Prior knowledge:
Low-confidence stretches: 1-22
CATH class of the largest domain: Alpha Beta
Helix content: 25-40%
Strand content: 5-15%
Strand order of the largest sheet: 2-1-3-10-4-11
Oligomer: single chain
CATH topology of the largest domain: D-Maltodextrin-Binding Protein, domain 2
Order of helices and strands: HHEHEHEHEEHEHEHEHHEHEHHEHH
Structural class: alpha/beta
CATH architecture of the largest domain: 3-Layer(aba) Sandwich
Largest sheet: 6 strands, mixed
CATH superfamily of the largest domain: Bordetella uptake gene, domain 1
Number of helices: 15
Radius of gyration: 22 Å
Distance between the termini: 59 Å
Amino acid sequence: MFSWKTLPVALLCSYAGGVPSVGLAQTPDQFFKGKTLNLLIPTSQGGEYDTQARLVSRHISRSLPGGPLVIAQNMPGAGGVVMANHFYNLAPRDGTTFGIVYNGLPTVQALGVQKVQFNVGEFNWLGAISPTVETMAFWGTSGIRRVEDARGRDDVVVGSAGTSGITYSFPMLLNEFAGTRMRVVTGYKGGNEINLAMERGEIMGRSNTLSSWRTTRPEWLANNDIVIVAYAGPRPKGFEKIPSLEDFAKSEDDRALIRLVASAGSRLGRPFATPPGVPGPRVEAFRAAFAAVMADPEFLKEAEKLRVEVDPVSGLELERVVTEVLATPDRVRERGKPFFK
């Protein structure tokens, strides 16, 4: 009669949890060879997240062991939360899925303002193409050319994907610290839809990264179709007369709040990660491949063509920033909750 007790211990262990462990013994080259990998994107097509993810998807196969096929897949919704929930709970944890993660999610989790179904502290962070500079910009015909022009007005309407990211929190921070009264319309699937709403006159402005403006709407900058009135993150060249969000802070706690809500995402850029539980050698293979892509001449040539600035952030640096965000003191967390809902 068959009995589990008669099987060798090693074989029993291989069936722990009902999953054979033979795959775990494979080298990354053996595992990835012949595989198709899914690269998930938390926004709709056409914005900066989509542009950067698809750029990486076209080049990373050459640097991954085994040369797997990489397919990009958009999964927009709720400011990146839809993809993150899937990433954490449903995506395979074997290395066949990785993604570009909405950079506001560590702050969302730290603040505890949503019942998120993920833990970014368990993601395996791979790297980012570059940090970002967040901006607040208005359509040229809006009449708003400085933050002061938006004060005392109740008709200033801006757009956002949801309430869990910088497109929502940046204008809300200006309302708090700069005395504006902007109304934020949410529900857009991604940056491309928000831009179209600006062109149609549905909204007057939005928060976006400087790199995204340069990549997706360079003609708007060249033609002065938009006016940038404030920024968060490192001061870019040419922004000497444009105020930083931190310029409106009145105390160190104010600055700590702004760094948590706005600047942490800037430091993360558009970060790539794998779900938790991916075997260590495969994570290291991803990290090495990502670093190699950042120096790949073909990648750099296409990045230049797309106007994507390359100033790589390592996976270990992303991990450090996420850990720092999740360790935010309670007094700062409480103040930050109204800016992420």
